[in-house]
């Protein structure tokens, strides 16, 4: 226990009438099995942007008293309950807070109490700004590739491929040798993916995009499209894919409902379904979860060549609204993160 740190007051982002406000809050004493963590980094993901807009999650399952924000992050353990070994104090850990859980408080706070068994511990040399995003994007990338493989696809198509998740997917798919057609919407996005070693990149602003997509998806046998954009673009991509292709909508970047031609549905048996990490968490076996986590943690403990995420800009806790606006504009350049210690 570091008495200096435990005397510090705590502060957290609280949603008041849907607006994020920084408030002084009371520290809760550590319960059995718990540790206190100094939160040092948390990403501003599109899911956080949806949360701040009041649009994220399964409404019926979100506890009524939920008032916080921030789903995942990293930090350093400052204190441990006597029931937990003191060895953990000083370690860098990553953690997640599920907004569907009764105890959700959000990680956008200076200090957070967590069960020691619920956090991921990293070796001494790993710093918080290397492991702020262990759960949401890396595990979704593993899930995307596993879903494509499990359903017998020979290749997959990915939209908004210069997202942080898209960059991890480029590296992971290369690592496991699974072909990906990366769709971007600007030339500089294509250039940045090329630098990462992406083989197949299509720019949707090009005049030949639709024909190129038809040709390449046929050639590679790409019958699964992982779509974080939705809107009309989903049907446009599916229209050019082989018969019986499926789009897995997993994000809402366009903010628009998906559309798909009834001709494609009836005569070419094309379909749209979903992919959601939270349902995977609920349904996957312990072995499947351990395997996915194992891959991610091993890589992030040794430099994060596959699952690491570049930081574009860091904001303090009182600048959450500005961070949210910045993330919407600059996502292709790297992740906007919140550092509550600033
Ligand atoms: N279902 C799940 O379980 C799950 C889990 C994790 C992540 N996700 C989703 O995965 C997606 C990517 O997450 P991330 O953290 O990697 O995002 P990110 O780093 O914020 O990147 C977003 C990317 O999308 C592009 N983009 C934004 N609006 C677009 C549009 N209308 N059309 C085409 N491209 C657009 C941006 O490029 P510009 O610079 O061109 O705007 C940027 O490259 C998000 O939709 C997120 O919600 C879902």
TrEMBL record:
Do you know which SMART domains this protein is assigned to?
Answer: PKS_ER
* Gene3D superfamilies membership: Medium-chain alcohol dehydrogenases, catalytic domain (3.90.180.10), NAD(P)-binding Rossmann-like Domain (3.40.50.720)
User: Can you give the residue ranges of the Enoyl reductase (ER) domain?
Assistant: 18-338
The record, for InterPro entries, names:
ADH-like_C (IPR013149), ADH-like_N (IPR013154), ER (IPR020843), GroES-like_sf (IPR011032), NAD(P)-bd_dom_sf (IPR036291)
Protein's UniProt keywords contain Oxidoreductase: yes
Q: Which residues does UniProt assign to the signal peptide?
A: none
Give the record's keywords alphabetically: NADP, Oxidoreductase
Report whether Repressor shows up as a keyword of the record. Answer: no
Q: Record's superkingdom?
A: Eukaryota
Q: Which SUPFAM superfamilies does the record associate with it?
A: GroES-like (SSF50129), NAD(P)-binding Rossmann-fold domains (SSF51735)
- What terms describe the molecular function in GO for this protein? NADPH binding; oxidoreductase activity, acting on NAD(P)H
Q: What is this protein called?
A: Enoyl reductase (ER) domain-containing protein
């Amino acid at each position: 226990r570091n008495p200096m740190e435990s005397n510090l007051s705590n502060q957290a982002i609280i949603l008041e009438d849907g607006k994020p406000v920084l408030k002084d809050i009371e520290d809760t004493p550590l319960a059995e099995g718990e540790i206190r963590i100094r939160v040092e980094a948390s990403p501003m993901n599109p899911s956080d942007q949806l949360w701040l807009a009041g649009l994220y999650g399964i409404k019926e399952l979100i506890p009524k008293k939920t008032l916080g924000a921030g789903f995942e992050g990293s930090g350093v353990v400052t204190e441990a309950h006597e029931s937990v070994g003191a060895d953990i104090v000083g370690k860098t850990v990553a953690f997640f807070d599920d907004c569907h859980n009764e105890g959700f408080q959000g990680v956008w706070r200076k200090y957070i109490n967590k069960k020691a068994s619920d956090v991921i511990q990293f070796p001494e040399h790993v710093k918080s700004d290397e492991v702020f995003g262990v759960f949401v994007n890396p595990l979704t990338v593993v899930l995307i590739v596993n879903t494509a493989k499990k359903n017998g696809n020979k290749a997959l198509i990915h939209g908004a491929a210069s997202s942080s998740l898209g960059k991890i997917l480029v590296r992971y798919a290369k690592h496991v040798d699974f072909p990906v057609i990366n769709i971007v919407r600007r030339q500089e996005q294509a250039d940045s993916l090329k630098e990462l070693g992406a083989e197949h990149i299509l720019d949707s602003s090009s005049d030949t995009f639709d024909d190129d997509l038809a040709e390449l998806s046929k050639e590679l046998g790409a019958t699964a499209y992982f779509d974080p954009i939705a809107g009309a673009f989903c049907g446009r991509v599916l229209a050019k894919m082989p018969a019986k292709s499926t789009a897995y909508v997993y994000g809402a970047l366009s903010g628009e409902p998906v559309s798909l031609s009834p001709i494609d549905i009836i005569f070419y048996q094309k379909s749209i379904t979903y992919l959601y990490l939270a349902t995977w968490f609920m349904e996957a076996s312990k072995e499947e979860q351990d395997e996915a986590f194992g891959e991610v943690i091993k890589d992030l403990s040794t430099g994060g060549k596959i699952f690491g995420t570049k930081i574009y800009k860091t904001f303090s806790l009182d600048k959450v609204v500005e961070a949210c606006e910045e993330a919407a504009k600059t996502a292709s350049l790297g992740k906007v993160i919140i550092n509550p210690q600033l």
